[in-house]
Structure formats: structure tokens, C-alpha cells
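User: Teach me something about this protein's shape.
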Amino acid sequence: MLTRTAFLGLAGLASLALTGPGGLPSPLEWGAGPLTVDALPRVTYVVHRGGAREVLENSMSGLTAAYQGGTAQVLDFDTRTLRDGTVVVMHDAALDRTTYTRGAVRDLSLRQWRSVRLRPRNAHPGSRHPERPPTVAEVLDRFGGRIVLTLEAKDPESLGTLAAMIRDRGPTRSAFVDSNDPEVARRAHRLGLLSQLWRSAAQMRTDHPERWRSFVDVLDVDYKARDVGLVRAVTSGVPRVWAHTVITPAQRDRALRLGCDGIVTDAPGRFAAASATQRGARPKSA
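Assistant: First, the predicted structure itself:
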């Protein structure tokens, strides 16, 4: 396998013909040493929920497609907890929207979870067979240490379990744990994890993100926020500021122009064929 110590631009990722086991395409690796977030490029692309506009949301096939296709440097997925404590990959508290099953995720046992099947949407190109949504352990075993991951802890009580799973598998410096709650981000930091905090445009109107710079590794901001809110985040002292959930070049370009250094997208394929816009100089921290 070809290895490199730094990423090329996104267009370069899409155009390189790299092969891994079985001749399948595989993304650039970070060299011989362990993968860490320090190897991320100056402008980072994040596949949100595996690329939910283009693939089955939060599916193993979608995450695999993004990984093998090199359309982003970070794979994002959501986590929920079953009644027996197993942590699984699912965004909603209920199964109704994305699967053929109805009811609450937390009411299922692991045995019942294995019978759940994701429901393809008409927007997904081509024919897709329904597939089982994965557990977090399966995703970590497949991708941990091979690409940067973002795990959103939808159930904050699962944080200890997620921390143990990440530590046991080793990718503590290549996996962010995400939440909308600053206190959950603080707890993640105290557990020795990389913490990610996402905020809505409404929240950003009154946020003081400089208060979080000691324990937040990524501030994940709503691209719809006002310019002043995005600039406040960029100048907060938090080391990385990513904009979500971007689906057009114009949205991306505005976020980068205001100083964000990451793009979280449901539609990575839209950006893969075009050269990433170069970000201007980031304002100095306040």
C-alpha cells in the first residue's frame, strides 16, 4: 500500500489510484506511525453520518464507501445505547425514520438489534439491499486507527462505555467524541478523549466559545450562523473549527472565507471532483 505522511487536496485524493487488499481503492495512510489528528490537512472534510445524502445513513456500506473512495479524511457517525448497554450506530432515538422497524432503540436487546434493517431512500442511487445497522464496536474494529473518526454520543450516559471501547482499541488520538452539551465535552476531555462540541446557529447567538478552549478539540459550528458567530468561534482559541452541515460549494466557500478549517457534509461526492477552496489566513485568537 502506498503511504504518505500528509494528505493532498481533496481533488488529489479523488484522482489517485491507490489500491489496498483485494485491489479495492483505499485512502492515503499517515505513514508507518500511529494515526493521529495532527496529520489532518489544513482544510479537513468530514463525511456526516457516512454521507447521508448519497448512501444509507450511518451504514457500514456508506462508511466503507467514503473510506475506500477517499472523499473525506474523517468519518462521522452517531451512537445510541440498547437496553443491555450495547452501543450501536443510529442517529434517532426511534427506529421509524431509517429502518423497517418501529419503536425506541433503547428498548431493543442486541439479539433484536441484529434483526433490524436499514431502509434505503429513493434518493440513494442504484439498487441497494437493506442492511443491518452496525454496532459501534464493529465500526471501531473496521476503521479505528485507519482514518479519523467522529462518534456523536446521542446518549450521554454511554460516554464511559465509548471511552473504554476507544482506549481498548487504541485510537484515542484519532477519534473525536461529539456532543451538543459542553459538560459532556468536558467529561470526554477528562476521560482522556478528543472532544468535539457542535452548536446550532441559535445557540451560537449567545455562546462564548472561548470558555471551552481548555477542553474542546473541535468546535463544530452551524454554517447558517451569522458571520459574527462564525468569527467568534474561529477566534475562540479552540484549535479546530468545522462547519456543518454543508452541501453546496457556496456554503463551503463562505465558511472557509470566515476562517473555518473543516467542512462537515452529507454530500461528499459533490466536492470530491473539484479542488478544495484554499482557506485564507485564520484570524488570531482573542
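Now, about its shape. The chain is about 25% helix and 15% strand. Residues 159-169 form the longest helix (11 residues). If you'd like, I can walk through any region in more detail.
User: That's plenty for now, thanks!
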